[in-house]
Design brief:
This protein has 15 helices and 41 strands. By secondary structure, the chain is of the alpha+beta class.
Length: 703
């Protein structure tokens, strides 16, 4: 998996975890508890009808009907059905008996046809009205597949949407594997030409008022220009892909920490997988693709990692053979795949729409490390030191920038040790923490974590690094001396995952969780570092349902914690005071806010977000000033000078004067920047991005 260079990783990570939380609703029927369940009929229409019958009950709000002959108009169908109804298939001029029977049983409120009359004739439209006389029959279709997707998006989301999914309109694999994500979020699927989005599609995104985009498919399928267009339109962008359609499907499921069921469909034809979007969303089951005669290696590894109770095969033996079914059963109970010794680089060509393997890919897949077994901490915490460690004198001054390449980012967070000797960067694309030696200017180790490592913090004595795993309900705890690690499981609200953490004293931390789409985002928890026990901080409260990411930052002396909460209706900043163990201030801000920093002494709070301005507040959340022309990504305050701040932007790292509330001099050049931190002596700025960790010298001292 990789992302564009201008995303806000914690916000994007919070977005990706939506796929992991799709759950069955409306009293949906469940399959038998066998390990391998085949959802199949005599043909493609019969398979779709059978899968619907095993999943949905009558009286649904919607049923989508798509062409069984060709895929273009149906690619965006999952977002129409959502997780509330199936996609059934029809011929151009007549309705298959299986489709007619299932539609009659379901008797939905609405029947939505996808595509124009060349794909589904008016005779079929009339026949459907007779089959289900209590249903309203309507059609969504444009002159082209791209226009159809645009129309579907605008009609399905008349009040707009925060997230859009972009896939290729030239072939089916990426769109169908994105189906469960689109249906479960819910979010529209929009189609792109290989070399870029049409102006009409960008206009649709603008009308939807979307703030986030997930691009599914590699640069060989969708050029990097697609990301650039989305970023220029003001969206946060994450791209998910593999080296082929099988690996792309696996990359999408890699954000899912666990699943009771997994869907498996052939990657060689579209019909069976097409119906998988609503089925997967309804069952909380990700969709994997396979060859027809041999289980694709990426699918095998994901099944082994997820260890589902059931594998639901879409299609009969001619689509997915009995041999594949047996291999899937073996994978379900086998050991997870090992990490490859030479990880695949994220740059260069990936999948192509015209050359796809029909059996297993021959290349070794990139496999995300799985969560460590739960191991509650048993050691007593080290007593809080009476003096902060002094910076290590062996770190030489940094005269010139140093760029350290990483594999498959992005970096979601960066922290520096009190000694100034080491920096840690959470690599959400590789499920690991990169250890950077600031004296030798190199990445010396990569420590595996759980799924989607996000926010991090060091204990008071610096002996442990706690890493929030946004893809699972746990933290990875790394011994900073030995780099040994353990996993601490935490009990949080269903559908949410740890996102951001600060450690406030020797035994206590605060952390926030991801947004699950149902109002559970923005919760604040207190964590006992010795036992792993958590309690909800009810004095913080639960915010509105538009919350996407709640991010924490603390002062170096741990006296003050700043909390910024981003939502579509605006931002909110809160202040926690350690001495009082209370949230002592709270203020509303304009615009979406999702980056924050606190000065070393806790006197000032710097707030960024999706606007072209940076806010400077005091520790009572009172607005001191606004710095305009300072838009971008993450923010930090100089540890030695609370009147100077920094912010990552498209043009580099902007230097901020926090007394006069203006941009100070020229930006410090850096090509790949998203998050940043500084060493305690302010000698090095550490910047994390999608493809590198960059070490930069600070701005010159003021004259």
């Amino acid at each position: 998996m990789t992302t564009s260079r201008r995303t806000r990783p914690l916000a994007v990570i919070a977005l990706l975890t939506v796929l992991a939380t799709a759950a069955a609703i409306l009293g949906l029927a469940q399959p038998a508890q066998a390990e391998i369940v085949r959802l199949a009929g005599a043909g493609r229409a019969e398979t779709a009808a059978f899968a619907s019958g095993e999943t949905f009950g009558p009286g649904l709000p919607i049923v989508v009907v798509a062409s069984a002959v060709d895929f273009p108009d149906a690619l965006a169908g999952a977002s129409v059905a959502g997780r509330f109804g199936p996609v059934l298939l029809t011929g151009v001029d007549s309705v298959p008996d299986a489709t007619a029977s299932e539609l009659g049983r379901l008797a939905p409120e609405r029947v939505v046809l996808l595509g124009g009359t060349a794909a589904i004739s008016t005779e079929v439209e009339q026949e459907l009205a007779l089959i289900s006389p209590t249903s309203t029959v309507e059609r969504m279709g444009g002159a082209t597949r791209i226009a159809t997707a645009e129309q579907i998006a605008e009609q399905t989301f008349p009040d707009g949407t925060e997230t859009v999914i972009i896939t290729s309109g030239a072939d089916f694999p990426d769109a169908v594997v994105a189906g469960p994500l689109a249906a479960g979020t819910p979010a529209p699927i929009l189609l792109s030409n290989p070399d870029g989005l049409l102006d009409s599609t960008l206009a649709t995104i603008a009308r939807l008022e979307a703030t986030d985009a997930i691009v599914v498919g590699g640069p060989a399928v969708l050029d990097l220009a697609v990301e650039e267009q989305l970023v220029a339109a003001g969206l946060d962008v994450v791209r998910v892909f593999g080296e082929n359609r099988f690996e792309t499907a696996a990359a999408l499921t890699s954000v899912v920490p666990q699943a009771e069921s997994v869907l498996l469909a052939t990657g060689e034809a579209f019909p069976d997988a097409l119906s998988g979007g609503p089925i997967g969303a309804a069952r909380g089951a990700p969709l994997l693709l396979t060859g027809s005669q041999t289980l694709a290696e990426p699918a095998r590894c994901e099944i082994a990692r997820l260890r589902p109770d059931r594998v639901l095969i879409l299609g009969g033996p001619s689509a997915v053979s009995e041999e594949v079914a047996e291999q899937a059963e073996q994978a379900r109970t086998s050991e997870p795949c090992a990490e490859p010794t030479e990880p695949t680089e994220p740059t260069g060509p990936t999948e192509g729409p015209t050359e796809e393997p029909t059996t297993d890919p021959t290349v070794e897949p990139t496999v995300e490390p799985t969560d460590e077994p739960t191991d509650e901490p048993t050691e007593e915490p080290t007593a809080e030191p009476t003096e902060e460690p002094t910076p290590d004198p062996t770190v030489p001054p940094l005269e010139e920038p140093v760029s350290l390449s990483i594999t498959t980012g992005p970096i979601a967070d960066v922290v520096t040790a009190t000694s100034g000797q080491v920096a840690y960067a959470s690599n959400a694309g590789r499920n690991q923490v990169e250890v950077v030696d600031l004296a030798t200017r190199e990445i010396t180790d990569s420590v595996p974590t759980g799924s989607l490592p996000a926010g991090m913090d060091l204990t008071v004595d610096g002996a442990e690094l706690w890493v929030a795993n946004a893809g699972g309900s746990n933290f990875t705890v790394i011994d900073t001396a030995t780099l040994n690690r353990r996993t601490v499981q935490v009990d949080v609200a269903d559908g949410t995952r740890p996102l951001s953490i600060v450690i406030v004293d020797a035994t206590t931390a605060l952390f926030t969780t991801t947004f699950d789409g149902s109002g559970f985002g923005g919760r604040m928890y207190e964590l006992d570092l010795t036992t792993g026990a958590v309690v909800i901080r009810t004095d913080y409260g639960v915010r509105g349902e538009t919350t996407q990411a709640t991010v924490l930052a603390r002062s170096a002396d741990r006296s003050t914690v700043g909390v910024v909460e981003g939502g579509s209706s605006g931002g909110r900043v809160s202040v926690y005071t350690t001495a009082q163990d209370a949230f002592t201030a709270d203020a509303q801000t304009r615009g979406f806010r999702d980056t924050i920093a606190v000065s070393s002494d806790g006197s000032r709070i710097l707030v960024g977000g999706r606007t072209a301005e940076t806010l400077v507040l005091d520790n009572s959340a009172g607005l001191l000033g606004t710095i305009t022309g300072a838009g971008g990504e993450d923010v930090t305050v100089d540890p030695t000078d609370p009147s100077r701040g920094y912010r990552v932007s498209d043009g580099g790292v902007i230097v901020l004067d926090l007394d006069r509330y203006l941009v100070e001099g020229d930006a410090i050049p850096v090509e790949d920047g998203v998050v940043l931190a500084m060493t305690p002596d302010a000698g090095i700025i550490v910047v994390g991005g999608a493809e590198s960790v960059d070490l930069l010298p600070p701005a010159p001292e003021r004259g």
